[in-house]
Amino acid sequence: MGGGLRRRQYENRFFQGREVYKGEEAEAFEIVKKLGEYEIRSADKGGYELLKNGEVVGIFPEAKIEENRVIFKLSYGMNLEVSEIGIREVLSPEKAELCGLIAADGSLPQRREKRIYEAQLTSKDKELAEIYTNLSEKVYGITPHHYLYCKKTEGEEKRAYHRMSIYSKKVVEDLRSLELKGPDPYEFHVPLNYLDEEGKRAFLKGFFSGDGSVSLSEGGRHAIYFYSECKEGLEELRNILIDLGFHPGKICTDDREMIPKKYSGPTYEFSISEKEHIKFIDEIGSEREEHKLKFQRIKSINGKKGRREEW
Amino acid sequence: MRLMKRVGFQKFVPEIDATDNRSWFWKNEIELPEIFVPLYQLLGDKEILAKASSKGLHDYLGFNGRIFLSTVMPDELIDKLRTENYFQLIRDLKPDVTMIPDNYTYVDDPLFLSWSQTIRLLSFAKDFLELNIPLIGMVKGANLLQMQWLIQKEVEMGYVSFAMPARELIRDHLLGDSLPYVLRILRDQKQVNFELLLYGIGHKLKYRQLSYSNLSWFLEAKHGSYFKNGIPYLLSDPEVRFKECNCEACRGRMPQDIIDLWLRDKEQALTILALHNLLDMKRTLAGEK
Amino acid sequence: MVSSAVIWGWGDDFKDAKANCEKYISIKWKENTKEICIYLTCRDWNEGIGLDLAAYTSDKEMVGDLAERLLYVAAFDGNAKVYSIRLLLFDSMVSKNEVCRHSMEEVENELKRREGLIAERFINDPEVKEVAQGRKVVFIPRIDLLCELESQCANKLVVEVVHENFKQMRELLDSVCNALIKEGLATRVLGYRLGKSVEDMKVRYVDTWGNEVLVRIA
Description:
The complex is a heterotrimer of chains A (311), B (289) and C (218). Chain A is an alpha+beta fold and 311 residues long. In chain A, 33% of the residues lie in helices and 30% in strands. The longest helix of chain A is centred in the last third of the chain and has 22 residues, at 289-310.
């Protein structure tokens, strides 16, 4: 406290951003939006200015103007959200989805002696590996390294798992600052403070693509589940579904009969109500191809069922 | 001028949280000769401040070692307190040693602001000479000249023990330039056998012959960091994961055991990890010459 | 039990499974250790079928190798995400209590018998009655199926699958058992059994959908 850069203090504590200049009053500015004590105006030369109580606190090249808020792009997949309530940093949808993928199927391992910092995703789905690559490039401008775990038996098709690794201390520290993984290495958490509604949907989509399941039974019934060994993280996921207007089932333990299970922690799960499957498919969805195929079938089943009920 | 003795810092002086008894390590039978207690935490909780003021910090905490009062605090609080406020608090809380009051000097502020803060700090340093307890001078400044000037004036007043708030300097990559300069200035004061504590650093740095104190009692345990020789590792780092530790906190556990404990009893795991990190820091720094 | 630890989790390098096991065993194996269980918690990627594998051995030198081979069978042949590998050290021969000796026919007959028992038991459950109100009630029990395998490189292998769709469970179980035999981890299937009796089951979710009430039991 009381040292280093004042700008950093303000950014961290008051979000007053960078004070640039107060001059050039002669320039004509168009006020784009007023939100509480903040004002957003466009400049003749392009870009947008953010003012607080009449003082310019930031200049941004782009802005997304919505009814109740304005979004400015920051770096590393972060956005600055300005609303009547105030301002805060939020994850861009791309970054939120990337975080969801890592929370489900990824990790942030570190080998200090060898100075290895890694943000990785391991998946059997080539599509998910490609999604991870695209998101990494959009958010961090980095293309992950791509490794394969393979197993080949005679006469059988080679099967592989994809390990996508971003080797960057900055990226790992950035993701760690969101408290996405840890402190226990197999724990995950939802970065609630950094998620707006769009971000919540994107995070859920990323997570479900990894640790969600869609099953179809012979009778045409379908089930959508979220799973994890981390109960706290699962509760956080369930809560953001509730925030988005869903009514997920309660969290249940997934019991087993085997002796070692008695000495291990349980796995947890919760389901999405069948009534809300279409809502889930439309608003959240998944990046996995097999999920998408099943979603199509669910929509078709529900469509037929709906017509039968009308009759 | 007042002739002062060195405070005699241990190599690592842990900071506790006066409002969170999980950080009162001596309750776990860990021997601690001295601790920092941050004043701003007490100011933030009226009830606890009242209790601590009525009994004194030693009785309130149930601690028999030396208590150093830390005056490092948020800017808004710095502006509110006057000398008489500090004196009253110190009289009531009865610490063994106190820092002189903090100020704020930002490198990107206009110079007149940081100079006026530096002069204000020096004014406090002079006022505090009236107190009858050992004092810790401050090393702060928006530039090297301010730090040098402040140190020289404090030395003239008799200060020999200094604390340098360093967390923000490290974060903004400024410590590398300022610390060697500060050490040189202190060494140049030949009549002084000084001691310097880096305040707000919870793990070992490359600099020797310094003392350290952290800002958070967790010592990075909250982030799952496990200290080995003063350096934080993740619990799952192969370098440490399966290596047993016989410190008073771990008692033969390895980080792998703490990983499992975290799944069953998070609080206990956190306590063991924080204690382990504390003991590791003390041991590592005590072993340095 | 003497000690237990999750020595590998999803996100760790596949090659760390063996190394982590060996490091852990080298420290935790004591003279009174009689048996080690290598326990994998997994879930099939396609249908979300719960899949657990356990190998019991008294040979500490085999543990790392067994763990790695089980990991590959689960991940590749079981097409499953392996959430964790846990090692449990016991001071007695625990695998003797892990017995599954029914035939598949007996299991299927038992399942049919349970259908009636489940309906009888839960139709008057308050949670079900509250929602039923003249609608058709469909009970969807979670099935827990265990399989014991004989092994020459371990004391015993046990596989457990858990899901609502018995046909899909069987397919997965057969696929995993065949892979275990093919990989030389097991020699043959000794038998099966169902876990959890009807008396121990509880209502998990009650969902309404049109004219139906879906009651998931586990």
